[in-house]
Design a protein that fits this description.
The chain is an alpha+beta fold. It has one domain. The chain has seven helices and nine strands; from the N terminus they run E-E-E-H-H-H-E-H-H-H-H-E-E-E-E-E. The strands form two sheets. The chain has a five-stranded antiparallel sheet with strand order 1-2-3-9-4. Strands 7-6-5-8 form a four-stranded mixed sheet, with no helix packed on it. The radius of gyration is 16 Å and the shape is globular.
Length: 227
């Protein structure tokens, strides 16, 4: 099978997808706690009390071996404010940034041109240099997301293998000015109620971080801009 994409790795050993139809690379998954812990250890940007608060009060941590239908979203880093996500992106390098809503929707609709296929997943798992913890997490997530795809009326696509739907609400810039934020996605009904569907929704939800308000459902995914 000719794959519609190529793969590379971010600085934590997690996969980045690139394809000619997109002017930027896209992380295969929303940023996980594994990746965020690399950032914390490397930079000391936030102390242990800060991180434990996110685990205790927003979204507990889970190992890949214990990941299942009722908890798989715990693999992703959520309860995040825009300033914290941006700080992570600055550390990630390689042109990493939050996407704009337009860029995120462009990625979603482009990736929805391909039905979910086991060959896509196998290509990720065979990527040389893939972080072994990433490999275990991606293997288990693929099993869970295939089962959870029954929540998707249109069926499952490449974007769903990447958890752009059935993942978390993803934080992004509202527009190219980069001064305001929104979030988009379609978390599992087991995680949060709702009938959103970003393939149909015309616009995302506004995210207001005034007074440091956090949401357990809000994580983030980076894109890698090409310069």
């Amino acid at each position: 099978m000719d794959l519609p994409f190529t793969l590379s790795l971010d600085r934590t050993g997690f996969p980045i997808l690139e394809m000619p139809a997109l002017p930027f690379g896209v992380l295969w998954l929303p940023v996980t706690k594994i990746q965020f812990e690399h950032f914390l250890v490397d930079t000391g940007a936030f102390d242990n009390a800060w991180y434990q608060d996110k685990l205790n009060n927003w979204n507990p941590r889970i190992s890949a071996g214990n990941l299942g239908f009722t908890n798989y979203w715990q693999a992703f880093m959520t309860g995040i404010l825009p300033s914290e996500a941006i700080r992570y992106a600055e550390w990630a390098g390689q042109g990493a940034d939050l996407p704009t809503a337009q860029e995120w929707k462009q990625a979603l609709t482009t990736l929805a041109h391909w039905r979910a296929d086991s060959a896509f997943h196998e290509a990720v798992l065979q990527l040389p240099g893939l972080n072994e913890r990433a490999r275990l997490l991606i293997q288990r997530l693929d099993q869970v997301l295939r089962e959870e795809s029954t929540q998707l009326a249109e069926g499952s696509f490449l974007c769903d293998q990447m958890a752009m739907r059935l993942g978390v609400l993803e934080l992004m810039y509202e527009d190219a000015v980069h001064r305001s934020f929104c979030c988009w996605g379609q978390p599992s009904r087991r995680f949060v109620g709702g009938i959103s569907n970003p393939l149909r929704d015309a616009a995302p939800s506004r995210f207001t971080d005034r007074n440091g308000v956090r949401m357990k459902t809000v994580g983030f995914r980076l894109i890698m801009r090409r310069f």
